[in-house]
Write a structure and sequence with these properties.
206 residues; 2 helices; alpha+beta
Length: 206
């Protein structure tokens, strides 16, 4: 799809390496105005610190945070900032992880109905011991991931900014007038079933 501007939006990419495979998660932040380079830097630093100080506690050491990249999505060639202060920030759980393509889904909820109004964060490097059975994560681990994502949502809210879902399409056609933003208010869990992210499998994705 051709580039479609999303004014005031900062795409925040968590770029990681898991067992030699490049993977990522991303969130969109509504800056409530065209972002400056200083604001891009601030979001990147906040995101890195959250990953290192909160999120890392529940994922395996096989996952390395390689960098956080923030991009102004308001223009096609918008400013971009990369924050990568070290090459040693990994998960903190020193046990074997589930396979790369095994993930757990935390829903980013806006409180509104429809697929356009919610997003997903797929957790990687889940400790194998966190299984409840062959197909489910145990409830304690699931809540730890949900709580960690909620902490990120709250940290952005503390800046009087919001993580949002940017919806470009409705009923399979581009939205007239450009994308619509749905403010994320809660991280939720709809089930504990383990999911698959095939592009994270070694040799398959980027």
């Amino acid at each position: 799809m051709a580039f479609v501007a999303a004014p005031n939006i900062v795409m925040t990419e968590f770029r990681m390496i898991l067992a030699g495979q490049k993977i990522e998660n991303r969130v969109m932040i509504n800056n409530e105005g065209s972002p400056t380079l200083s604001e891009l830097q601030g979001y990147a630093t906040l995101a890195w610190d959250w990953w290192e100080n909160t999120y890392a506690a529940s994922i395996c050491t096989s996952c390395l945070l390689a960098g956080v990249v923030t991009t102004d999505m308001g223009v096609q060639n918008g400013q971009q900032y990369t924050y990568a202060p070290d090459t040693t920030t990994t998960g903190e759980v020193a046990t074997i992880a589930m396979p790369n393509e095994t993930a757990f889904c935390v829903t980013l909820s806006s409180g509104l109905r429809g697929r356009s109004a919610r997003g997903r964060w797929f957790v990687a490097a889940i400790p194998d011991a966190s299984r409840a059975d062959a197909n489910n994560l145990n409830a304690t681990a699931a809540e730890a991931y949900r709580s960690a994502i909620q902490t990120l949502i709250d940290a952005v809210e503390a800046l009087a900014r919001h993580i949002v879902i940017v919806s470009y399409v409705s009923n399979k056609v581009p939205r007239p007038g450009g994308p619509v933003y749905f403010e994320v208010t809660n991280a939720t869990i709809t089930d504990t079933i383990l999911d698959s992210q095939r592009r994270r499998k070694p040799g398959v994705g980027a």
